[in-house]
Hints:
0% strand, elongated, mainly alpha
Amino acid sequence: IIPLPLKKGGTRSAILQLVRTRVEDKTDFLLSGLSDNIANALFEEMSDMQGDEKLQRHFNIMRAVKKGKSQYRSKFEHLGERLWATLPKGMDESHILCPAGDVVELIDRFSDRTANHYKVLIQETCYRFQTLCKRIIDRHPLCPDVYYRSFWHAIAALDLNYEERCLVLVLFHRFVMDRYGQILAVANATLIELKIDTTIHLPTSSQ
């Protein structure tokens, strides 16, 4: 519940908290089905797969993701806390730095693809964050690469090797980021509901 004493829907912190809560609920809903989707996808592949090593890899991924389901969902939300808390003055991403190795190219490719597909909605949401925070914003918690990097760090504690984590990231792209537009829509709709428009109002030097 947020206070609504101001002209345009409430205090900035209260508005951000409501947006964050709704975004986290939608994201967690999508993550909640990830382990089942991964299990189904890998099981289908295994029916035509040759080689004990590949079969073992798929079994290990299915086991680790199912066992660590609550762990990576909780970790993903925890990683987002600092992003939302620091957004008004400049988002701190130091805890979700881009990892080393081949996964960098994977994250870049997936992020660019997602950003291009949802370009208009991403831009509109960004403009509303700018109006709310009264500053120019080019980075915010809903940027596609933030989601990919956060998920990579969220599954770090699972019993997976590097190659297996990369495959899980591919499946995250397939089953969660394929519905990324729903996350953006929730954020944007909440900001519209609270009368946050797309015209940035920067403070003057006297303010």
